[in-house]
């Protein structure tokens, strides 16, 4: 008993990072519950993934069926529901990703499972699982607990931890496909690649990033002036792209690009975890924000807590002066 | 095309100081300003755009107190036709599956082609209600949608995935779609619309009116429990520059230039 199951996530021939992150967490939890780590893989001809997963799991349950070539929430649900009922894990983990949020709540409703979403940490207190999740965009954490009997279901946030090294050599067990035929009412059509713009911000050495704090498009010249003085490219958080101030190709974060410049200057960006995931690999991070509690300061090297409209013009002026 | 759109009133905490209240399980919201949840605002706009293109009507569903009426009237002013507000303090808002059950009860049995919700509430960040709602209604769903193309008896949607890739999915109607921000440009409520909105129907219901047993969606019946809130320790290694705004700006400029960062 006490087994921890992890749903492997993959897309377009790639195993997603969240999978190994979850397996790493699952191993820590299972070590305390005395259970096994079990990876669940639904796919078509993805033997290489199964092989990779066995390095992190005691068992790999592998459904190999062309019907699972591409993700489809309805097919996944049809496959996972009987599997969860049969194996009755203590805990079933799904990534809090665009796949996981499209799948887990429906699965929880169908099976009446205790379900907690977007978990960032799983503590064990007196043998009970106590997931931690956040409210108010990361300003408050909450300790949760499950009530009733397992299986318990949760979605786990990406990049909450670093995946460890493989240290298991589990068995791979092929499981008969639960699907007899394709599902008609929800159909996968195709993937459409991301927009390509004039500047590839993943290659930029210096980035000035703008967020909600700039308030209006008419304030963008402030940022453009600063970027010019710094010889930087401009990028932005989701808010700046949604508002139409910048094109989609300039978005930094989980639904945009992951950047690793030498210098990243975040202006008026509070730092939602989706944004942090896309830029925390920058060598030096500067944050300018009037909210001292903004999560962006958790990854910053240098910070100014103040009104950006007072700071940015002065910064531009001083930089021009110094750089002559 | 008949559409339900589910909306929630949330606090804007993007620049607010958030403090845990005396119960330890809530926050002091006395200084917060509230408005429609961001992605719900995009869902309202998408619903109105679909109605304008295809005809039909848009009904709002909202679980909330009277405080939500202003927000609901604004959505009506933008072109939604009527609203149902479920006002019942017994609903356990902490559990998205219970909230979904309540919303489903308000929609079940009525004729609809689409249910739209925002993909995430900015206060609890669960991203769960819309997908759970689809399961309660027994219809297909797609989450985090950035483009909707409604056709005859079916709908094609573009789900926004990590890295800006889109997954194109086709579904039979009726269906539930959770809307991602940026899908459209939400309009401002026109003055004429605000006047008209006052006359539109806003029905306030209790759980019993929906045939939902209150204990079923109560905190006691939830399969999860919020034990306590706490303010996370920000492990910041940031050097915070001090002084007047211009002093801080000058100091930063010097550090960047002399530190060899520029």
Structural class of chain B: alpha/beta
Outline of chain B, from the CA principal axes?
A: globular
Mean pLDDT of chain B: 97
**Strand element count of chain B:** 13
Strand content of chain B: 25-35%
Largest interface: A-B, 101 and 83 residues
Task: Give me the strand/helix succession of chain B.
Answer: EEEHEHEHEHEEEEHEEEH
Largest sheet of chain B: 9 strands, mixed
- Secondary structure class of chain A reads alpha/beta
Give helix % range of chain B.
25-40%
Low-pLDDT segments of chain B: none
The strands making up the biggest β-sheet of chain B line up spatially as 9-8-7-10-6-1-4-5-11
Radius of gyration of chain B: 21 Å
Distance between the termini of chain A: 69 Å
Helix content of chain A: 25-40%
Structure description:
- The model of chain A has no long low-confidence stretch (mean pLDDT 96).
- Helices cover 28% and strands 29% of the residues of chain A.
- In chain A, helix 3 packs across helix 4 (100-111) and helix 5 packs parallel to helix 8.
- Chain A is of the alpha/beta class and 324 residues long.
- Chain A has a nine-stranded mixed β-sheet with strand order 9-8-7-10-6-1-4-5-11, with helices on both faces. Chain A has a five-stranded parallel β-sheet with strand order 14-13-15-16-17. Chain A has a two-stranded antiparallel ribbon with strand order 2-3.
- The radius of gyration of chain A is 22 Å and the shape is elongated.
- Chain A has helices at 17-33, 47-53, 73-87, 100-111, 220-230, 238-242, 273-279, 308-323, and strands at residues 4-7, 10-11, 14-15, 37-43, 59-64, 91-96, 115-125, 128-135, 140-146, 152-157, 171-174, 186-192, 206-210, 233-236, 263-267, 284-289, 302-305.
- The longest helix of chain A has 17 residues, at 17-33.
- Chain B is α/β, with parallel strands linked by helices and 262 residues long.
- Helix content of chain B is 26%, strand content 27%.
- Chain B contains six helices and 13 strands.
- Chain B has helices at residues 38-54, 69-77, 96-107, 129-137, 191-197, 245-258; strands at residues 3-6, 9-12, 33-36, 58-63, 82-86, 114-118, 141-150, 154-160, 166-172, 175-179, 202-205, 224-230, 239-240.
- In chain B, helix 2 crosses helix 5 (191-197).
- The longest helix of chain B is centred in the first third of the chain and has 17 residues, at 38-54.
